[in-house]
Design brief:
The protein is of the alpha+beta class. The chain has one domain: Fervidobacterium nodosum Rt17-B1 like (Heat Shock Protein 90). The protein is built from 3 helices and 7 strands, in the order αββααβββββ. Strands 1, 2, 3, 4, 5, 6 and 7 form a 7-stranded mixed β-sheet that branches. The longest helix is centred in the N-terminal third of the chain and has 28 residues.
Length: 185
């Protein structure tokens, strides 16, 4: 019986001592962060030269790291791209897969041409996050949004949002500095 209790005591000591190293092993098991891009380009059939309606997407996707942080950041990026697309579709549906949303953009151009056949201007929409940056501690999504859907000139916007990779929360740049100086000529 003593041998049994001694065995039990030694076993529980080994298990409890191994527990302190398990936190380290979990942290070590996290995969390194990686930045990839889901790219998509669709254009109307029978495109010729510069008079081609098209849509081009380059969506940054984070891989590795913690599941919660990765999900929080990727969900933000997904929502940002969907919202930008939704405002340019004939029927504002933002839940469909991106290839279907791209087709809907092209369909919008066809509908526009049916209503205004004298318009010969091609449309385009480029939503690109390929300038986004990943460091050891932070991810910065830089999303360039350029479109032409008729009118006098194209429109261009840039959305920039940084995230802490530890928890995936958005970083408020202004709160990190006591003051920001803007220099003008």
């Amino acid at each position: 019986m003593r041998i049994f209790f001694a065995f039990l005591a030694i076993s529980s000591l080994m298990i409890s001592c191994g527990g302190s190293g398990s936190e380290e092993s979990v942290a070590e098991k996290l995969e390194a962060w990686e930045l990839d891009f889901n790219s998509l380009r669709k254009s109307e059939a029978n495109c010729t030269g510069d008079t081609c309606t098209y849509i081009e997407l380059s969506i940054p996707v984070l891989e590795g790291g913690s599941v919660d942080a990765r999900s929080r950041i990727n969900d933000y990026i997904d929502a940002t791209f969907r919202e930008a697309l939704k405002s340019r579709l004939p029927e504002p549906n933002s839940t469909a897969p991106f290839p279907e949303l791209a087709e809907s953009f092209l369909e919008g151009y066809k509908l526009f041409n049916m209503e205004f056949p004298e318009s010969d201007a091609a449309w385009f929409l480029e939503l690109k996050g390929d300038s986004s940056m990943l460091t050891e501690e932070y991810f910065t999504a830089i999303i360039s949004d350029i479109d032409f859907m008729g009118g006098a000139h194209p429109n261009a916007y840039t959305t920039i949002q940084s995230f802490d990779l530890e928890d995936g929360r958005a970083i408020d740049i202004l709160s990190r500095y006591d003051s920001i100086h803007v220099f003008t000529d």
